[in-house]
Specification:
CATH class of the largest domain: Alpha Beta
Shape: globular
Radius of gyration: 20 Å
Strand content: 15-25%
Distance between the termini: 31 Å
Number of domains: 2
Bound molecules: (3R)-3-hydroxy-3-methyl-5-(phosphonooxy)pentanoic acid
Length: 357
C-alpha cells in the first residue's frame, strides 16, 4: 500500500546530518517497457545488479526555518543546472512521503564511476543513491525504523525518480512488478529475487561496449509513453510475464542456453517495440547489429555461452560466465573493439547492491 510509505514529522529537527551512499546500475534480463500513471510498470521485469558502474552521492542536510525544497547539486565537483528540473520533480513526487524534507536544505554531491556521457544512463544508480541518502535521514529522525522498511521505502522512492532505479539497491537479482509466481513482487518497489540462482550465474560478467556515447534521440520517458495504444502492447506485456516464468526455471536449473534464448529475445523485443510504435524510432546503430552478428558467429564456432542484451540505446551488454573471461576479452579486442566509439568498453560484473560509505 502506498500509504505505508508516508512518514510522520519528527519531534525535533536536528541541525544537520550527512551521509554517503554508493549505488550501482543494473541491467534488465526481462525488460520493463511501458508504464501507467505514477511510475507503475506495465509488466514485471528482473535485472542483474551491476558492481563497478555506480554513483556515489553525499548529501549534507541542514535544518532551515522556512519550508520548501532547497538544494544545490554538484556533479564531479561542478554545478549541474541541467539536472535541477529532474531532481526538483523527484522531490515534488516524494514530498508527501517525507514531509520533513522541506525543513532541510540539501547539498548534493554526486559522482559516477563510469565516464560522463558514455551513453550509460546514470539515472538508475543516481536516483537509487539519492533515495538511500534520503532514507538515511529518515532513519536518523526515526531510529526505530527496521531494515526491511528502510530498503523497501528506498526502492519505492527510487522508483519515483526513475522506474528501473528501484532495482539497483540490492543484488544479485532484483525483480519489480507484480508476477503471479513471485510472491513478494510489487509494482511499487523492487525486491531481491529469492527464487534460487544456480552457481553458474554468480560472477556473471557484463562487458558494456560503448557503441554510441551521444545523447539518445528518443528518451525512455517518451518510449514508455508510446506503449499506450501500441498495437502489440498487450501481447508484449503477457510475453514478459511468460518470459519471467521461463527465466525463473532457467536460473534455478543453471540452463545457460535457455538464458541466452530469453535474454537475447527480450533485448530484440524491446527494440522491436520501439520500431513498431507510432511514431517509430530506432536506437540501435549499424555497429550494434555488427556486434550482434559477431556474437552469434562466435557462439557458432565456439562452445561459448556469451550472449548480449541491450537497454534503451545503442550500447551492447555482453553477458557471460566468469570462466570465459579470458577468451571473451580476447574476442572483444580482436573483433568487437573496432565497433566501439573510440574503442571504449567497460568491464563490469554482477554485484550485491548499494553500500553506505
Ligand atoms: O527506468 P527507465 O524509465 O529509464 O526505463 C528503463 C527501461 C529499460 O532500461 C529499457 C529496461 C529496463 O527494464 O531497465
Amino acid at each position: 500500500m502506498v500509504n505505508d510509505f508516508i512518514s510522520g514529522l519528527p519531534e525535533a529537527f536536528p541541525e544537520s546530518y550527512e551521509c554517503t551512499w554508493k549505488s550501482p546500475s543494473n541491467i534488465a534480463l526481462v525488460k520493463y517497457w511501458g508504464k501507467r500513471e505514477g511510475q507503475i510498470p506495465a509488466n514485471p521485469s528482473i535485472s542483474f545488479t551491476l558492481d563497478h558502474c555506480a554513483t556515489t552521492t553525499t548529501v549534507k542536510f541542514k535544518a532551515k526555518p522556512d519550508k520548501g525544497f532547497d538544494f544545490q547539486l554538484l556533479l564531479e565537483g561542478s554545478p549541474q543546472p541541467s539536472f535541477h528540473p529532474k531532481i526538483g520533480k523527484f522531490l515534488e513526487r516524494i514530498a508527501s512521503y517525507m514531509p520533513f524534507l522541506e525543513s532541510y536544505s540539501m547539498d548534493i554531491n554526486t559522482s559516477n564511476s563510469f565516464p560522463h556521457s558514455s551513453g550509460i544512463a546514470s539515472s538508475a544508480s543516481g536516483m537509487s543513491a539519492l533515495a538511500l541518502c534520503l532514507m538515511s535521514l529518515e532513519k536518523f529522525l526515526f531510529p526505530e525504523m527496521d531494515d526491511a522498511y528502510f530498503w523497501r521505502k528506498a526502492s519505492f522512492l527510487a522508483r519515483l525518480g526513475s522506474g528501473s532505479a528501484c532495482r539497483s539497491l540490492e543484488g544479485p537479482l532484483v525483480s519489480w512488478g507484480e508476477h503471479r509466481n513471485i510472491p513478494v513482487s510489487s509494482d511499487l518497489y523492487g525486491t531481491p529475487y529469492r527464487g534460487g540462482m544456480h552457481p553458474v550465474f554468480s560472477g556473471y560478467q557484463d562487458t558494456i561496449l560503448l557503441v554510441d556515447k551521444g545523447q539518445k534521440q528518443v528518451s525512455s520517458t517518451v518510449g514508455h509513453g508510446l506503449m499506450h495504444g501500441h498495437p502489440f502492447a498487450d501481447a508484449r506485456f503477457s510475453q514478459a510475464h511468460h518470459n519471467l516464468d521461463e527465466l525463473m526455471k532457467v536460473l534455478t536449473a543453471g540452463d545457460q542456453d535457455g538464458f541466452i534464448r530469453i535474454v537475447e529475445s527480450e533485448a530484440l523485443t524491446l527494440h522491436a517495440m520501439m520500431m513498431s510504435s507510432q511514431p517509430y524510432f530506432i536506437l540501435m546503430k549499424p555497429n550494434t547489429l555488427e556486434i550482434i552478428n559477431r556474437i552469434w558467429k562466435f557462439r557458432e564456432e565456439n562452445t561459448s555461452k556469451l550472449c548480449f542484451t541491450l537497454d534503451a540505446g545503442a550500447n551492447v551488454h555482453l553477458l557471460y560466465p566468469a570462466s570465459e573471461k579470458e577468451e571473451v576479452l580476447k574476442f572483444i579486442e580482436a573483433e568487437l573493439v573496432g565497433y566501439c566509439e573510440h574503442g571504449q568498453y567497460i568491464c563490469d560484473r554482477v554485484g550485491t547492491g548499494a553500500k553506505q560509505l
